Structure formats: structure tokens, C-alpha cells
Amino acid sequence: MHEAAYSDKPGTGTVHEPVMGAEVVAMLCERRPLRIVDATLGTGGHAAMLLEAAPAGACLLGLDRDAQALALAAMRLERFGSRVIVRHANFSALAQMVGEAGFSGVDAILADLGMSSFALDDPTRGFSFMREGPLDMRMDNTARLRAYDLVNEEPEAELARIIYEYGEERGSRRIARAMVEARRRHPIETTGELRALIERAIGSRRVGGVHPATRTFQALRIAVNDELGSLRALLEEGPRCLAPGGRMAVIAYHSLEDRMVKTRMRELAHQGDFSLLTRKAMRPGPEEIARNPRARSARLRCLQRNP
Ligand SMILES: C[S@@+](CC[C@H](N)C(=O)[O-])C[C@H]1O[C@@H](n2cnc3c(N)ncnc32)[C@H](O)[C@@H]1O
């Protein structure tokens, strides 16, 4: 469950503290990578750490589907000059992006899934039920589908499926019914309206510190951005882009994603061309979680293409 993304703790400002940064650098830079792909550049925190730890001749191709994040990353990484190439792209097109940038034979790939603190903290993006804003939730604001469209137009059964499958929410049917009843009166426009509707449908009591709207907001975000479809493509294409000895690290924040990463990495290791560098997922230490509550659900897994 991606509790971290919907934590009501104060954010870390516009700069996203790189989650498990030291562990990522240790995994990806041990073999002195020269071609690095950061598939989820965000505001460039991990990218800066990787470039600092890599040999001076190393270059990094950074992708993100969020143009606002890319603009911040480009500023943050300016000091690395031509060592950094930034592209507005979905990581589902990783192989194409790698080819176009002349990056074939990648030594290190990082995917730090989910969303950056700065997007989460921006009320106009509509990701958080803690902040009043429009029901948007698009990571890429050039995409057409918004959470508003799902909530106000999807059939009740499809809404219930999305909330159950992507949110693992047991009250999915009650919430879907409440959405359909509410939208008959007038469209559901804001994060606050949706939150209040969920609280009325399944109660407002937190269980295990998790607000009842957490799972539904997560589910809608996953559906709006087809997050699982993109991850499936990344897990197909990423390993194929690696040079012998190259490594791919993925940080997942909820169980659906982590299960996909674990299954795919095990499958590749079983086939013989790859080895798992993490038999079990690595977790952030208590100090990091205390410093950055959004790290608390992170799971890091890493795979190496056999040299
Ligand atoms: C957790 S943040 C990454 C933060 C980054 N590691 C840093 O240190 O600043 C995840 C980023 O991945 C991006 N993202 C999520 N899914 C994506 C996809 N399918 N393709 C490209 N970028 C994606 C989000 O827009 C967000 O900026």
C-alpha cells in the first residue's frame, strides 16, 4: 500500500529527498557505470547522487512523464553539463529512448516508482486528499484522462473494480455506489468532495494510521496513469537494454508494483542471463523513515545482467 504517497505529514518542499539513496548508489555504482538511465528522473535527486558517485566520464539519460519535474531536474543537474540528457517520456518507451539517445548497452538503470513530493504537495495536481484541488491526478498533463473523468463517467462496476484491484479496498462497492449516487446530483469536482464522499461511504476512522481515502486515491491515480501497464513494459524493456554486467534497480511503494517487480526479476534470474542482487527486497532504515516518512513503504530490488 502506497501510504507514503498520501502521508499527511508535511512534505519535504520542492526537492524530493532521494529514497534509499545510499543503497541505490551502492548497488548501481559498484561496477563504475558509464551509461546510466534514470527512468523516473523526478527532481533529479537520485540522478545527482549517481553522477557524483560514477566515473567522471559517465553520462545519464533521465526520463519523466511529468514536464514540471523535468524542468526542476534540469536546473538541479545543470552543473553536470552535457553529461545529462533529459527527455519528457513514459518509461514504457525506454528502449526507444535509449536507442535515440545513442545509449545502447546501458550499465545502470534506476526506476523510483510513484510520484515526487513536489507533485504530491501541489494542490492543483489533485493527487492528495489532504489538499483541496481539482480531481486531476495526471502525471503527464498532456494526457487526456483525468480522475474527474473516471469518477464522473465510469460505470459503477468498473469503478468498484478499479478501487478493489488497484487500491485493495474492501469497501470498493460501497464507495463506487456512493460516487454514482453523488454524481447524479452534480459532478464530483474536487479532492475534498471525493474525500468526504468516501468518509460517508466507509467511515472516517483511520486503521493503522491510514486514512480511509488513501486506497481509493491510490487506485484512481494508478488507473489514470496506467501505472501497472507502464511498469510491465519497463520490466520487459529495461533488462534487455542492459550491457553485460549492467544493473537495474527498482524502488516500489505499494504491494501491487513490488509483486510485479519481484516476479519479473525472479523469472529473468531463473532463465539464466540475469542474477538477483537482492534475494529479499531492501527496506529503508528507521533513521531514514524518521527523516522522510514517505520512504516508509519503499522496497528496493536489484538485478544484474550476467557479465
Ligand atoms: C518518486 S519520483 C522520483 C524521484 C527521483 N528519484 C528524485 O530523486 O528526485 C517518481 C517520478 O517518476 C515519474 N514517473 C512515474 N511513472 C512514470 C512513467 N511511467 N514514465 C516516466 N516517468 C514516470 C513521476 O512523474 C515522478 O516524477
Structure description:
The chain is an alpha/beta fold and 307 residues long. It folds into 2 domains: 4-118 and 227-305, Vaccinia Virus protein VP39 (Rossmann fold); 144-224, DNA polymerase, domain 1. 44% of the residues lie in helices and 14% in strands. It is built from 13 helices and 7 strands. It has helices spanning 21-29, 45-53, 67-76, 94-100, 117-121, 147-153, 156-167, 172-185, 191-202, 214-224, 227-241, 255-271, 286-291; strands at 35-38, 59-64, 84-88, 106-112, 242-252, 274-276, 299-305. Strands 3-2-1-4-5-7-6 form a 7-stranded mixed beta sheet, with helices on both faces. Helix 7 crosses helix 10 (214-224) and helix 11 (227-241) packs parallel to helix 12. The longest helix has 17 residues, at 255-271. The radius of gyration is 19 Å and the shape is globular. It starts with 20 loop residues before the first helix and ends with a strand. Residues 1-14 have low confidence and may be disordered. Bound molecules: S-adenosylmethionine.
Brief digest:
It is built from 13 helices and 7 strands. The protein is α/β, with parallel strands linked by helices and 307 residues long.
Give the percentage of residues in beta strands: 5-15%
Give the radius of gyration: 19 Å
Major sheet strand order: 3-2-1-4-5-7-6
The CATH homologous superfamily name of the largest domain equals: Vaccinia Virus protein VP39
Task: For this entry, give a set of tags.
307 residues, alpha/beta, Rossmann fold, DNA polymerase, domain 1, 2 domains, 13 helices, 7 strands, globular, disordered N terminus, binds S-adenosylmethionine
